[in-house]
Amino acid sequence: MQGKITAGLGQAGFFLSREGYRRQFLERLGFVPFPGTLNVLLDEPFPASSPSILIRGFSEGEECFGGCRCYRIRVGGMDAAAIRPEKSRHPPELIEVIAPANLRRTLDLKDGDSVEVII
After folding, report:
1. From 18's CA, which of 11, 37, 55, 93 has a CA 20 to 30 Å away?
2. In the chain, which residue ranges form alpha helices assigned H by DSSP?
3. Which of 30-34, 61-65, 105-109 has the lowest mean pLDDT?
4. Are 42 and 117 in contact (CB under 8 A)?
5. In order of start, what are the domains of the chain with their CATH numbers?
6. Could you give the residue ranges of the DSSP H alpha helices within 55-109?
7. Region of residue 108 (phi > 0: left; psi between -120 and 50: alpha; otherwise: beta)
């Protein structure tokens, strides 16, 4: 699938740094993600019927954090995962990508750059 890099809201780092998510990502995906996502606007909807990995919601103090589904992908030749939060308002063409490294920096990507996503 082809897509273009797009700016996000800048909130992913907060969520990805929560221990409840970090532990599950390590257990289920085999890595602790860089605290931020790479947002990719695909040319077509992401196939949500692809095999997914469930990350369960949890509570941390007074706050509740929702679950999400992760889909193993490759971006720019690197192993990564597309995440779809249960409470997402993103259109089906927009994916948030997590990886052990900062993909923008590692792959030298900027908003508007084209990228191939392999499921």
Report:
1. 93
2. 12-16, 19-29, 103-106
3. 61-65
4. yes
5. 2-118 (2.40.30.30)
6. 103-106
7. left
**Identity of residue 63:** E
- The angle at the Cα of 48, spanning 105 to 101, to the nearest 5 degrees, equals 15
pLDDT tens-digit map of 91-101 = 899 999 999 99
CB of 38 closer than 8 Å to CB of 110: no
Summarised one tens digit per residue, pLDDT across range 6-55 is 987 666 777 788 888 899 999 999 999 998 899 999 999 999 788 999 99
Residue with the two structure tokens 């030749």: 77
Mean pLDDT of all residues in 44-67: 89
Residue 10: per-residue pLDDT: 64
Question: How far apart are alpha carbons 27 and 24 in whole angstroms?
Answer: 5
Parallel, antiparallel, or unpaired: how do β-strands 2-6 and 38-42 relate?
Answer: antiparallel
